[in-house]
Protein 1
Amino acid sequence: MKNYILLLAAIGCLSITACRKNSTYSGSGTSHVTVKLTDAPGSFDAVILSIKSVVVVTDKGEQTITVGGGPINILHFRLGKDTLLAAQDIPAGTIQQIRLVLNASGNKVVVNGVTSNLTTPSGQTSGVKLNVHDNLVGGIDYTLRLDFDAAQSIVLTGNGTYILKPVIRAIPVAVSGAITGMVTPIASFPKVYAIMGTDTVGTLADTTGKFFFPGMAAGTYNVKFVPVSPYLVKTVSGVTVTTGAVSDMGTVTISQ
């Protein structure tokens, strides 16, 4: 319970889908982070939070992710259920802190049918802070699952008002892998396809010959190179992707 500190926010996973044609990542210098919120049971009818944004602080700086939608009754997301708060590509590096910024109004608790406002002094300004230390590898998808403990987070004061003192456990998990490598000669300028079953993901080798597939589901792929003429098509079989790791194919030579 020592890792339970201060409030929510959230960073699903971008998994491979049938016939996905192109990578949407800006490069291996970013990680796709999805923040999700779940709840440990508490003895309330409802706990409603109005979340403005999620700030992810890494050793590369701060990234603010705006949270859309209206207030969330977090008690709907318990016993393994969760809800997506936000998702965004951020620079790869080390997460140092997550800050959840709440709107000034719309935060409420319902007890025995009576609705009361939740006072959240720090959550409305700099944000409720949650210290997290986890490395983000470029090109890997991550889910940051925030487990909100409603029973410990809501305090009834002596004058009958409720104060929100968030207690949360952060569980960062890698949910994908990646494939990278080099092609030679650069003049072959191939289209590159990673194929597993009926799923195909495509990319291009850049001007240095490098290719990169981020956000790949774990499994074994055939990687197919379709170069310009007069170079010949080549397929490399048995390329294994492991969750949380980048599989480096080294240099692949394209023949004429």
Protein 2
Amino acid sequence: MELKDFIQAGLDRVKQATLKAVEGLTPDELKFRPGAEANSIGIIFLHQARSEDMFVQARIQGKPEVWESENWYQKLNLPVTETGGHYTVEQIAAFRVPELKDMVAYAGAVRARTSECLAGMTPDRFDRIINLPRRGDVSVGALFALILVHSAEHAGDISYLRGLQRGLDK
């Protein structure tokens, strides 16, 4: 199996787990936070998609993010400057969670672009070094590993928060 196929298979599994965890959630369940300093499913789900968009589009490909190029910030009624992370407690409390169907559509648009990028990758492109703020120099392959692990961690967060609200397998 080629590296790009391995990464794609992992991302497909994470997508499946995430979509299962958010399926059928109400707006109140998307906004639920187990504590004042905890994120909601809505924030985590948006963060998961925004991170992938920024890493793949801007950092790996040097292209505009799907967020801007396809006007998802307008579709989700959020500011163009919304990064999906690094919030203060006050920002977490004030965050307006977009509708689930819209966040799912944005995440799908991001993943489609990620898949296009991966499909065109040759083995040598995974060795290219890029500089990331707060992380320094990393290879494209290492960044894809980060994206995969990061997305899987957040799929688990979302599943856990769903379970807190609904119990097992509900």
Protein 3
Amino acid sequence: MKKLILLSAFLLSTSMMANAQIFTLGLKAGISSSNVDTDDATANLTQFKKEGSITGFHAGVFTRFNIVGFLLQPEVVLSSSGGKFEVPDDNSPNATTTVKEMGFTNLDVPILVGYKLLFARAYAGPVASILIDSDFDGEDIKDSFDSADWGYQIGAGVDISRLTADVRYERLKRSYTDGSIRNQQVILSLGYKLIGK
């Protein structure tokens, strides 16, 4: 009876360890540098000149399935992004310009595929971006954009015990009533594994 209990305990602990190696669940947060490109925009956005990037923030949950080094990593992340523009004050050739910000708040769902070697990871995949809010110089413009858009992410990361660190490039094409714009960002994040390694 004692041997049976010990064997059961061993099999249970082995199974738990195997599952912990295959499945990981964690929390993540970080910052990003993003801008909006209007090169392929139409209508009134064509008069805007890209001025610069803004700093965004994100926080969310990640899961990771690791099978013999190959990774599948779905995530759910609340994020902010956007960019700055030079906007002419009037239609005259020598018009002065004002710098204004366009901002987005999204629920992003990346689904990344990659490979892990020792403590380093590399990955890429599509990201679905659900628009929660958008404004231009404080004016609500959410209704001008589609409620959801697709893009992609590519990046690399490292794992040190339960801590993770990642750097990514993301590019989204955002559709609006008169055309589309491109929102791109470089994302830095830190995470902590609650389950798994």
